[in-house]
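Structure representation.

___
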Amino acid sequence: MTYELQPVGKNYDMVIFDGDVVQGTWAIVIANTKVLNFVYSNIASHADGDEFTIPLVIGKGTYDLHLVYTKDDNQGKLDVLIDSTVVINQLDTYDAATQSNQIHEETNVAIGGGLHTLHFRVNGKNAASSNHVMRLQMISFRKVA
C-alpha cells in the first residue's frame, strides 16, 4: 500500500486515498464525472461503521480542510478524525439526486506537527437514505496560521 502527499500549491497538500481498511470493503472506483476521475468507496460493503485510515505527516499549524465527496440517495453520514479528535462530525452525504464533486470546508483546525492518522468512518445515515454508501475523492489541507 502506498501513501502519497501531493503538493498542489503554496500552503496546500492533498491526500490521495489509498488507506488501511479498518472495517468494510473499500476500493477505488473509476468515475469520469468526478473531479479526479475516481472515488474511494465502500460500495461493496456499505455498512454503518465502515472505516479506513491514512497516515498523515503534516507541519504544526492551523488548517482549513476541504473534503471532496459525492451525495446520493444511498449515502451515509461521515466522520473524519485526526488521531482520536473528530474534525468533521456526521457530514450528511445524502441527496435525493446524485450530486458529484461536493466540497465540505472545515476551518481553523489546529494540528500538531508530525505523524498523525486520518480516520474516515461511516457514522449513521439520513432517515431518507437507503444505505450507508460513502464516495470520497480528496481531502486537502490549507495552512492558514
User: Anything to note?
Assistant: The CA atoms of residues 7 and 44 lie 31 Å apart. The chain has a mean pLDDT of 87. The chain is about 0% helix and 60% strand. The first strand starts at residue 4 and ends at 9.
